[in-house]
Design a protein that fits this description.
single chain, alpha+beta, at5g01610, DUF538 DOMAIN, ten-stranded antiparallel β-sheet, two-stranded antiparallel sheet, 34% strand
Amino acid sequence: MRVRKTEYFYTLSTVKKLLPLSCRNKMEKALVKVGSLKAGTFWVSKKAKEEISNISQDLSTLSNTVEEKAKWIFNKLKGKPTKSLPDLLRENNLPQGLFPQNITCYEFDEIKSKLVVYLSSPCEVCFKDSSIIRYSTRVKATLSRGKLTGIEGMKTKVLVWVKVTSVNVESYKSDKVWFTAGVKKSRSKDAYEAPRDAIRVEEF
């Protein structure tokens, strides 16, 4: 089968316009390594194939993130009841301000009790008791009555940054919220009652 050089580069040019900048740069590097077209065939070096494989992985990751957010928006537009995150936390006897005001969206699987909270960038919140919590772009946890366990994507500052693995409130009347970050330590529940805007940081 004869491959026309002009059609080949036109197709890549079109694809490049649809790619994020990071993927576009990788594709340009891959193109440098593409061999010549001879007798209707073309040769692609091993390194170029690796570059193209990396681009595919980046696109797959991007696609998964977009799909997760699109699914949440679709359910909302479809009329499926979606509580605000503060309301969901309150119904489970947890402070409404455990997560920032400016989250992107969240998902909650009621059957598995799995909660996933999405943020546009790594960020942190300073609460009124001067405690600081830092969040990754995606925070995962298991949500149950008065508990967030198996947390991934949350840190608190205790001299140094330490990963938070669980948050719990012992009873409805309790005025304390307990954070497990290496050790278990109580903080005033009142400090976390209202969601606050987060400040963007460079990295989690």
